[in-house]
Design brief:
This protein is mostly beta strands. It has four domains: 93 residues, Sandwich (Immunoglobulin-like); 96 residues, Immunoglobulins (Immunoglobulin-like, Sandwich), CATH 2.60.40; 85 residues, Immunoglobulins (Immunoglobulin-like), CATH 2.60.40; 145 residues, no CATH class. The strands form nine sheets. Strands 14, 16, 17, 20, 21 and 22 form a six-stranded mixed sheet that branches. Strands 25, 26, 28, 29, 30 and 36 form a six-stranded antiparallel sheet that branches. Strands 4-13-15-19-18 form a five-stranded mixed sheet, with no helix packed on it. The longest helix has 31 residues. 24% of the residues are buried. This is Ig-like domain-containing protein.
Length: 462
């Protein structure tokens, strides 16, 4: 307000004046404080908190706003948050209510924000969930570090540790653990079976004692479980690749093993150890087709039960190399005549063999294990290099039938190539497959396959 006044010194008590009210408009000046009913240093979880916002402004503020951590607050009665123009009420405040609060006022001249008020809600310690009920598999005489980490406001003043199992309860002397801030660590070494159990810790601060302890379960390791679903992924005469589904490791690191035994001699051909359940081994180049695979896992406690896998290779090649040479027409004529004579003799022998095999064929799905050597008949080719192969296929394969153009028949013994003893390994073999010797150098229909095994043999089976 402006006042203009005039006085005459000769006229006492006489003066003239005029007034003019000056209306200055300005942005609000805002102030925030906690109610006198609250002690800002002793707000505990569950208390009611009252904040008051005041503003001086011209014109008067038309609207007030409330903020927590820079985010505007809205009324939420279910969460106990009540917002009015110049007050904020937090009923049964929780630990998440801690933070920086501000208010703001707005009039026609603008908007202004108050000073911040930091609300610190005190609450007792609580174990961090990720650190609770952990399981530690520990060997005897092995030391494990247990870390008790809590969340609290203010930080905890003290920790206590104890051990218990089904037989005893024991407090742990503070000299055996170290505490700093919100963390306490304890080194524990089980030395006997009764040292396994549950180790727990509790913390407390000025807001109270921790409700639920942080617990650590100490368990002794066990043997790994048996490997499952083992199968041959890749195999050849000289390479074998097997994959299994690993089981429980017993709580400690496990490794995987594969032993390859030659049947029927049971000689160990290979012993492989791997950190993964994919095992690869090289096999010696020899004419053996039947292997027993022993697969298992092991850890520091011992080894698991074994899984076995029988593998039969159905295609085994023998190569007989000759020095290249040319045949004269005369020599070719004699070879042809000799071949026809030999073919006639072999045809008679083959018919006799088939008749005997038909009469003595086993009635069950077993592989013939007689004391006689298995003899196979095939039609070789007249070429510089001769190759024979054991083939696995259906009985009625048209490529294995007798043909018309038999140039030469030759008896070929393969007992050194594949000798399968007994029927204990092939109980599930379908009856429409045979193992036969086929000359790889000529068309198979020109061959008279005189020998075959009655039952079929899977390439691999468990």
């Amino acid at each position: 307000m402006l006042i203009c006044r005039a006085e005459n010194p000769h006229l006492r008590a006489k003066s003239l004046e005029d007034t003019w009210k000056l209306a200055v408009q300005y942005v609000p000046i805002v102030s925030l404080k906690m109610s006198s009913s609250n002690n800002s240093n002793h707000i505990t979880e569950g208390d009611n908190v009252y904040l008051e916002c005041t503003a001086r402004a011209n014109p008067r503020p038309s609207k007030f706003f409330w903020f927590k951590q820079g985010i505007q607050l809205e009324q939420d009665t279910s969460a106990g948050v009540f917002v009015s123009e110049q007050s904020l009420v937090l009923l049964n405040v929780i630990r998440n209510g801690s933070g920086e609060y501000k208010c703001a006022a707005q009039n026609d001249e603008g908007k202004a924000t108050s000073n911040p008020v930091n609300l610190q809600v005190r609450y007792p310690p609580a174990c961090i969930s990720l650190k609770n009920n952990q399981v530690f598999v520990v060997l005897e005489k092995e030391t494990v570090e247990l870390t008790c980490e809590v969340n609290s406001s203010p930080p905890p003043k003290h920790f206590v540790w104890w051990f218990n199992n089904s037989k005893e309860y024991m407090d742990i002397d503070p000299k055996y653990y170290k505490s700093r801030g919100s963390t306490s660590t304890f080194l524990y070494t089980p030395s006997a079976e009764e040292d396994y159990g549950v180790v727990s810790c509790l913390a407390f601060n000025t807001a109270g004692l921790q409700d639920e302890p942080c617990s650590f379960i100490l368990a002794a390791p066990t043997l790994p479980t048996k490997l499952q679903n083992c199968s041959v992924l890749n195999r050849s005469v000289t390479t074998l690749q097997v994959e299994c589904q690993e089981g429980f490791d017993g709580g400690i690191t496990q490794v995987f093993h594969m032993e390859v035994l030659e049947l029927p001699s049971m000689n160990v051909l290979s012993n492989v150890t791997s950190n993964i359940s994919l095992l690869v081994t090289n096999l010696p180049e020899r004419a053996r087709a039947h292997y027993l695979l022993i697969l298992y896992a092991s850890n520091a406690k011992g080894r698991s039960a074994i899984s076995t896998l029988h593998t039969v290779f159905s295609h085994i090649r023998l190569t007989e190399s000759h020095t290249p040479r040319s045949l004269s027409p005369r020599l070719g004529f004699f070879v042809t005549i000799g071949g026809l004579l030999t073919a006639s003799i072999c045809a008679v022998l083959a018919a006799a063999c088939r008749h005997r095999t038909h009469n003595n064929r086993p009635t069950n799905n077993s592989v013939d294990s007689s004391e006689l050597d298995d003899t196979y008949t095939a039609a070789p080719m007249i070429e510089y290099s001769r190759q024979f192969a054991l083939e696995l296929g259906p009985r009625d394969n048209p490529d294995l039938r007798n043909g018309d153009n038999i140039e030469e028949m030759e008896m070929f013994a393969v007992s050194d190539v594949l000798r399968i003893r007994g029927n204990r390994d092939f109980n599930d073999v379908p009856s429409n497959y045979t193992i036969s010797v086929v000359d790889c150098g000529v068309t198979a229909r020109g061959a008279d396959i005189a020998a075959s095994h009655g039952p079929n043999v899977h390439e691999s089976h468990i």
